[in-house]
Amino acid sequence: MAKVLGCIWFKLQVESLGGTINLTSEVNNGTKFTIELEAKESTFKTPIGT
To answer: Bridge-partner residues for 21, per DSSP?
Structure first.
């Protein structure tokens, strides 16, 4: 049950960021998850760590 809830939480987080999750699976070959998030321009005025 915990794994299912973790997957649902992860899906909701990705979707809340405007992303998508795609899944492909082949018998005896495995499963591939593709997570796509849109890159946005940074709002930082100075580089981190300076």
So the answer is: 35
